[in-house]
Amino acid sequence: MTDSDWRDLLDEIDAGRVVPVIGSALITVPDEFGIQKPLYTLLAQRLATELGLSEPQTYATTGAAAAAHVLSGRERIPIYRSLRMLLKTIDAQLSASAPDGRYLSPSLSQLARIRGFGLYLGTTPDHHMLTALRAGRPSFDAQRHHVVFHPNEAPAERDLPTAKLRGGDAYLYQLLGDQDAQQCRDFAVWEEDLMEFVCGLLEHADQLKNLFNALKERSLLFLGAPADDWTVRFLLRVVRGERLSSRSRDHIGEYIADDGPELSRSTVLYFDQAVKTTRLVRGNPNDFVAELFSRWQQTFGVEADDRRFLESLPRDMPAGAVFISYANEDLAVALNVARALHAAAVSVWIDRRQLQAGQLYDERLEAAVRLRSSLFIALVSSASESNADRYVHREREWAAQRQGGLTEEFYLPVLVDIASPKDVRLEPQVAMRRHFHNLGDDGLNELARRVGDLHRARGSRT
């Protein structure tokens, strides 16, 4: 792709008009030598061994092992049971070796941090994309933003909650089932499974209107051979609702980034010659994602995104907003908290330190804390704990004095990089008597829910 091609793709992503389709080649884990390898390549021999197949070392994919098992006349149910067990075993091993107990597949972590994506389509049953979104998108809530399709299990409940996909939320829709038995009893492993799921999408199109409308309005970015390549063609036909070679050719409708060997000659010819609206980008899909993420960061990355978000907040604090108190070093954390609250429809305010000396800085900030805020969040970190003379402690003293005259919750201390409240020394005494939230694991979403409930309760009494 030329620089111009990349700019066009990035502009489409920034406008929310591209949906990445996550294939198995993007889900990589370290082997015994620490080298990143596709998860499902490493699983193939293990699955063949679990299924009792002879010469398990000859199987290159889990689909090939599953097909051999079924074609030998044996029941297919053990396939899903064995693969579930293997996925859970590897997840536990990876979590145990990760510094924070949460392993992130590199390419998936990069994709999750590209905020222009509002919808991700998963084509594998594992939870690696789910984990990446929890880490990379602070407002992502698995209860609301994770949807799994199954053709025979409550399809009416498997639609996206909306087709709009705006407002900063990100959704993960797993097209071909999920490893969690509570989500569905099986998932796509080999060709017959794929056929059942793709035909099920077609049969239940009327019950999946939000999903189909969202996909019809957007370009699809296929990454890493999502299942067999015939599935890509069939899925496109189902989603687009028309003969692909008959479409208007005024813009790119799909991108397919993959190694040449993973795509059959007929597929390459089909897209290159017959379907001019689909662009094939030959090469390693993980390298493509790394390049995409690098260019996204340069154009719309964290600094630019943070600046736009800060500029969207009012300069003066609105009455009833949530005040976030933070040390300068914790600005990125404060922004993550602010975004999560914003996504939960909570009015939030961050002091941008833009008031100049001589403009009654202290008085205006004190009034914001004491009189105008509905709740006060204190981000407690090694930075805020480093010095009792830091300005944040002046804010927190005002908030503590206000909390002392209230029976309801107002002062909400939040641990950032400190393990326990026992390690906190500089917070006011009133804070030490309160429950400390922790941003570890799923703490940000829990905090957003708690603050959202308190904020709405305040509003209902005014």
TrEMBL record:
Gene3D superfamilies: Toll/interleukin-1 receptor homology (TIR) domain. It comes from the Bacteria. Keywords: Receptor. Pfam families: TIR_2 (PF13676). Residues 322-422 form the TIR domain. InterPro entries: TIR_dom, Toll_tir_struct_dom_sf. This is Toll/interleukin-1 receptor domain-containing protein.
